[in-house]
Input
Amino acid sequence: MKRLLSTLVALVWLSLPAQAAVEVQTVETSGGIKAWLVEEHSIPFTALEIRFQGGTSLDRPGKRGEVGLMMATLEEGAGDMDAQAFAKARDSLAASFRFNASMDSVSVSARFLSENRDDAISLLRTALMDPRFDQAAVDRVRSQVLSILRNAETDPGEIASDTFYKQAFGDHPYGNNDNGTPESVASLTRDDMFLAKDRVMTRDRLYVSAVGDITAEELSALLDDLLGDLPETGPELPERVEPALSGGVTVVPFETPQSVVMFGQKGIKRDDPDFIPAYIANEVLGGHGESRLMEEVREKRGLTYGVGSYLVPFDHSELVMGQFSSGNEVVAEAIDVVKTEWKKFAEKGLTAEELENVKTYLTGAYPLRFDGNAPIARILVGMQMDGLSPDYIATRNDMVNAVTLDEINAVIKRLYDPEALSFVVVGSPKDLVTD
Output
């Protein structure tokens, strides 16, 4: 059955057109649950994506890691089924459930065959509404989280990430590893799991999409049955926080042949009218393989195997970030090159040729994201959470093509601030001047 599901998923990917011509229906159930739906009846298979705003940022004080631990334990038994019985029931239906936690949301991803839809949703409902959180399961998953935390203590990439976010966000939830600390995770109880579930899975922060062999009427009934009994409201979301990044270089000594570098500054909100020009700009600076940073740091000088930058629009803050690794003997030079390119970008912007090339790349790559039921379902939920409308899929490339050189260069001058560009270096860098 699992092999059958994999085969059907592959067929769905092949059956969907390689273009962003996706017809989105908006659905509202009799119980008031709103969802987006793309019907695709050529294959008897559906992907359901459920997301709740809030995520690990809703961990209570002193309970860092509780939401992550809860989501990781959610499938470890439900109702009268222990973990093994639940897994056996799921596999017998050729269904797939995934439970994930991130800084601003928790998600439930389900895939199921049409012939098993009712039984698969019934099983998922049991997991969401009647989880067991058996002590043995909590202890087992806790040990896995503690192992992750121990490994992170000797992982230069994790150290760089934790240090950078701590500098940027301090005591805000964004400034703390959402897996928690060994002390906070060790103190979590079974009761904390039940409380965490009821705090993060609430109807006032619910976003849903479905793609596949299901009609609007069928989806409406399914969602009321699956999610209708969730708590109505959750706790207040965290307050907004401005990144406390004022420039400079911080070194965290660590014995390793290569230094890991993270860098960044304040970014741009996702709902800012200039977000698309900013996104285009970042693609030129460091967003893909032919970017300026790749050209200058890797291709011309061979200082790294790869370097990139990206926009990070959190719900309550925003960054422009980047990262790379370099040998300890050359990392100082690599950082100087990044600084130089950041300043040049801020002062001179893009050329007309760069803008046309990146538009061609972005508009050509966009349809390739829609390569199956599950990816489309994830995209649709993300769009909802970003406050976009269903027609964004059809109009996005037009919006990219409409950006002028003057508009994008004005956004670059507004956004990029070389003086605020901050670096965290984990390693044993040679001849690196810190601030």
